[in-house]
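Much of what follows relies on a compact textual record of a protein's fold. A record is reproduced here so that you can trace the correspondence yourselves:

. . .
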Amino acid sequence: MSYIEENEELYRAWIGQKKQDKYLEKIKKSGFSFTGLIVPHLLLITRKMYIETVILVIIQIILDLFTELLGIKEETTVIINFATNLTIAFSYYSLYEWNIRRKIEKYREQGISDEEQIKIAQKYGGDKITLKVVIAILVLIISSMFFITAKEIILANISQKKDDTTNNKAVSSKTNNFLEENTEISKQKNNTFEELTSTWFVEDCTLKYDLEYWEESIENGHQVLKYKNNELYLYYAGNAEIENGKKMCEKEEFRSYLENDIKSNLAKNEPPLIIQNTGWDKINNDFYLLKVETITENNEQSQEYLDIYYCITDNNIYTFMVDVGSSIVEYKNEVEKVIYTIEK
């Protein structure tokens, strides 16, 4: 004897008087429910199958979200929903039998006799519209409205993000085009600059100069850059050996010592050179630079200006001198453009 046959009286009580025999027969055979195909939620709620209703709603929400996010056509969505309802229609009576069986066992575990359970089932079972049923229907309606609103917000946000991404890509594309155009312009400028720039080879160093303004020459046995159409000369005066020059230049004591030594030697010059200003700088990883600005009086009692640049490496001090008939200030930038290109 099956479980249903052993507890048939309890099953009948929970099914209710309406179509009792038909329901019992379909429960035994797991028949098809047309009501479950058309209005599955309402059928499950009126039969107090609340757990099954919640599971169905969750499944349909998940399917609905996925179809929207994946951009599945509306016709396909209708087919998916129909397939879900069809599944409920075919499984409804099996689910209902499982629901009644849970109730029977629950009350027995609580120590309620079958006679008492029959009275409870006759009062609350079947498809009677109880307060719980009304509340469940209201919850279903409100939940559906909430879900529709939430889905619209989610999809709107996703759509906005896609639009933002598209706009960002468009902006990025324009920016890239702009950068490419400017890079090409920059390359053209660099190529033009390279065409106008030449290299001055001094000992084991090189300096860059602009061919438009400078030209190489030899004056008094020294390598010279002469500023065109002017009396400005940039001399290479020679070099002296030194040990750990760069490391020494990092120390304030050595800097002061070197400045004082240079000041003493320049004072011995005839006529003497008077230091007006000094300054230190670092050109790159290979050179420290000491700039010394001097002034002297020539035989005609007029002032002459002489700037000296000491480029100091680990092993050598390279000396450059700038001689100009008038104030050197207006040409200082042109001179230092050359000095600051020095490389080993």
Residues 131-196 form the longest helix (66 residues). The chain has twelve helices and nine strands. The beta strands are 197-202, 205-210, 214-219, 222-227, 233-241, 274-282, 288-297, 303-312, 316-324.
